[in-house]
Amino acid sequence: MKDPIKVLVRRVGQEPTVEVIENDLRSKQKLVGGYIEMPYNPDFSEGLQIVCNEEGKFAEEPKPNVYWGDYDVIFGDIFFVGIGDEGEDISLTPDQISEAKEWIEMNDASGIGDSGMGGAAVVELIMDNYSEINAVSKPKKEKSRDMEM
């Protein structure tokens, strides 16, 4: 049996929290509410990985969480995990937790539904006009001075 791991969880519309979970597939699927996907992001430092629901866009009532790139959105709850030397999931370090929190702040998309455009409408725009999405394009945010390293 694998040891529990420390992850950073971001539930839609909530602040991220550090949680300790069992290091097994069932616990990870429960956290995101379905099948897990671990999309690659070249902007993350080595060993930091985001985990989301691979079918989050197709949920009955999709809830936007974070922007993914300039023209896509990850829907549903997410979490961040560390990746070990052999590709195994491991606990996050304090530096990785800080990096993930900063990334969430810079890419927050949970307010999309507040603008009158529900999650289903956002998904429809993404699916129909993937290369021409303007309504959900990621707003440019400036890093605050105290967030810079």
Itemize the secondary structure elements and their pairings.
Elements: E1 5-10, E2 17-21, H1 25-32, E3 36-37, E4 48-53, E5 64-67, E6 73-75, E7 78-83, E8 89-90, H2 94-106, H3 119-128
Antiparallel strand pairs: 1-2, 1-7, 3-4, 4-7, 5-6, 7-8
Uncertain residue ranges: 130-137
The helix content, as a percent range, equals: 10-25%
Q: What is the makeup of the main sheet? A: 6 strands, antiparallel
Strand content: 15-25%
Number of strands: 8
- SSE topology string: EEHEEEEEEHH
The number of helical elements comes to: 3
Care to describe what's here?
The chain is α+β, with helices and mostly antiparallel strands and 149 residues long. 21% of the residues lie in helices and 23% in strands. The protein contains three helices and eight strands. About 5% of the residues have low confidence.
Q: Notable features of this structure?
A:
single chain; 149 residues; alpha+beta; six-stranded antiparallel β-sheet; two-stranded antiparallel ribbon; 3 helices; 23% strand
Short synopsis of the structure:
The chain is of the alpha+beta class. The protein has three helices and eight strands.
